[in-house]
Amino acid sequence: MRGLRRWKSGRSFRRWLRFSVISSPEEAMMWGGLLLVLTVSVACITAKKARQGCQSIKMDMCRDAGYRRTKFPNRLGHRKQDHAANDAQYHLLDVIINGECSAHFKTLACLLYAPPCDNLEDDTGLPVYPCRSLCRAAKDDCLPWLEANGYRWPRIFNCSQFPDRREEKCNGHVERTSAQSFTGTCETITIPLCADVSYSTAGYPNHLGQGSQEAASLDAHMFFPLVKVQCSPHLKEFVCGMYAPPCDSQRNAPPLRPCRSLCQAARSGCEDWMSKFGFRWPGSLECDLLPTVGEEEDCFGHVPTLPPPTYPPAEGKCEDITIPYCQNLQYGKTRFPHAREDILDQQEASREIEHLFMTHFGPDCSPHLRQFVCHMYAPPCGSDEIPQLPCRSLCEAVRAECMERSWPESLNCNYLPPDDEAPCVGIVEPTEAPPSVSPSELLDRILRDYDRRLRPDTGPTTVNIGMTLRRILALNTKNALLTLHTWINMEWKDKRLIYGNTGVRRLEISVRYLWMPDIFLISGVKAEEMPLPLTTEASIFSDGTVRYVVPWTFTVPCRKRSESDWDCRVVFQSWNKPADEIALSPVEHFLDAEEYNGGLQWNVQSVSADRLITNVRDEADKSRLIFTLVVAKHVSEI
Question: For 203, phi and psi rounded to 5 degrees?
């Protein structure tokens, strides 16, 4: 037993072997076999250690992912499979996989949630991430399905966070090329919004999976108001590039997609305008999904980053500032002419300031307005010859807070220097910044003693209503009924919800926690369409303004005016509250008829709004708001 115990020590065995004498071939074969067994045993132990952590896949969504064993922890921090299966996003991933929207989505989800046991590892010993190309391929395929079924792209799959195969190791690369043959059709463009783009034919199905111009036109038309107000010079090119992509039938190649830089230029110019009225940039038009210049996939419409502006040597001399709005600044002199070559003197600058900012926007729309305006129109006259213009960030902040309809192209923020690239004036915050607070803490605070059963005011509560027509779905000329899809924008003030300057621009909250006006469509012809839908969230702003934007599809009666014209009325009224409690008022900038044009068959010639107080015997007087639409057939339809 002592001898056996000693031989368990490798050192003792080697010492014994060194001084042993092998006396016969049989003895040599015996010891050689023993050495082989020992070598194989050591190799098996080493391999077993290397496989530690590997386990059979038990997660339902990854049982047929193309491999049978996985290894934890994964890149999401899950240390066990049951942790991953109980993740908050897991159910949504399972729904998307069962929806079969993409052949790549399951691969993407399983590489992240249950990476294969033999997966590559990075320097930290964790599995490498899925490739960015795999994520984009899955997202491209699934976004139309997600939007059609009321889902959003899972937030954990932010494609920009995944590596590019050319830059670092990743798993699951997908080749994306436009060299494959095109099996769709090239058609002459008939979409009204895209009638004057630089090309004449479009390829279908388009980049959003729409198979016809009729379907694409209805969705593209929702951008008509944005194109009209010129929030970005790149918006029309981008929108048409997605909904009516340029097609070359001779090349027989799929239509090119817009470049990511074109999307970013369009989005940066218009997203603030959209959010001000409660709209979000569509997930199907996510810029990160689009190719960049230099990738394997070609694209069109690249917008180069503008270099910092260069200024010619200043001419003229410093002069005292005489513009009334720019008196008592930290500087008192300016120089004309300056970088705004269209403004020749202070009198002209003062007139434009009065027109744009005092009348159009209002002087109190932003705490940074005066700082921006005066540095733009009367920059300080310094010792150097470069005018100290506002920084791009200051312009964008004022634009987001003040823009009601359109932002002048002459004040395009992209033309101003970034904060870190040229001398410029940035946002000057108060010396004592307000304490930071999270949106959830703010909501808890303002709702602590809030009673949603009570109206905001002791006097009448004014509810401003705007109606944006998205589509005319049908005009039944036999029964004189108009069916239309709209977005309704409502605003009112609730002083109980004021939260002041906390650094939070707005709060999003379910309407079930708020007082809501009992607005009814009293001109509706279907009972189920008459109550205001309470299906989306409301926005609360720091001054107590509540904004509620909701889609509303309904049918209203019309009256024939002529052979081709119809007069249709959309009438809103509080159901229970009298006029001295709820007063309805129109939002004026929703009354531009041109914003309603672009339908395939019907055209809105004019729209107006009237307020009146009902006078019905034995009933309390009520405030009523009437939108009148004059609808006519397109000339080509007559």
Answer: -100, 135
Q: For the CA atoms of the chain, what is the radius of gyration? A: 33
Q: Which residue has the tokens 């939108």?
A: 627
User: Can you give 242-293 as a three-state secondary structure string?
Assistant: HHCCECCCCCCCCCCEECHHHHHHHHHHHHHHHHHCCCCCCHHHCHHHCCCC
What is the distance between the alpha carbons of residues 157 and 141, in angstroms, rounded to a whole number?
Answer: 14
User: What residues form DSSP beta bridges with 488?
Assistant: 467, 550
Percent of the chain with pLDDT strictly greater than 70:
73
Backbone angles phi, psi at 487, to 5 degrees: -115, 125
How many other β-carbons are positioned within 10 Å of the β-carbon of residue 532? 20
Rounded distance between C-alpha atoms, residue 575 and residue 521, angstroms: 9
Q: Which H or E run contains 442? A: helix 439-447
Neighbours of 338 (CB within 10 A): 21
Report how far residue 418's alpha carbon sits from residue 414's, in angstroms, rounded to the nearest whole number. Answer: 9
Pairing of strands 506-510, 545-560: unpaired
Calculate mean pLDDT across residues 420-448. Answer: 71
Q: How far apart are CA 142 and CA 152, in angstroms?
A: 10
Q: Comparing C-alpha atoms, which of 288, 301, 296 is closest to residue 138?
A: 288
- pLDDT tens profile 577-594: 898 899 999 876 555 555
Per residue, what are the HEC states of 47-103?
A: HHHHCCCEEECCCHHHCCCCCCEEECCCCCCCCCHHHHHCCCCHHHHHHHHHHCCCC
* % of residues, the chain, pLDDT over 90: 12
pLDDT in tens, 239-266: 999 999 998 767 667 788 899 889 998 9
Distance between CA atoms of residues 266 and 414, nearest Å: 11
Q: Write out pLDDT tens, residues 88-114.
A: 678 888 889 888 888 899 999 999 899
Closest CA to 291 of 259, 337, 319, 268: 259
Please answer whether residues 226 and 274 qualify as being in contact, where contact means their C-beta atoms are separated by less than 8 angstroms: yes
Cα–Cα distance for residue pair 119/526, rounded to 1 Å: 59
Residue 623's H or E segment, with its range, is: strand 623-633
DSSP 525: S
Segment 181-240, tens digit of pLDDT: 566 788 999 888 898 888 889 998 888 878 888 888 877 877 877 787 778 889 999 999
Average model confidence (pLDDT) for the chain? Answer: 77
Q: Tell me the residue ranges of DSSP E strands in 127-197.
A: 185-188
CB distance 442 to 506 below 8 Å? no
- What is the rounded CA–CA span in Å between residue 366 and residue 363? 8
pLDDT given at position 48: 45
- Model pLDDT, residue 262: 92
Contact 572, 521 (CB under 8 A): yes
The whole-angstrom separation of Cα 296 and Cα 305 is 21
Count the Cβ atoms, other than its own, within 10 Å of residue 266: 29
- Please, what is the Cα angle at 627 between 622 and 629, to 5 degrees? 155
* Rounded distance between C-alpha atoms, residue 616 and residue 103, angstroms: 63
Count how many Cα atoms sit within 13 Å of the Cα of residue 607 in the half-sphere of its side chain.
Answer: 21
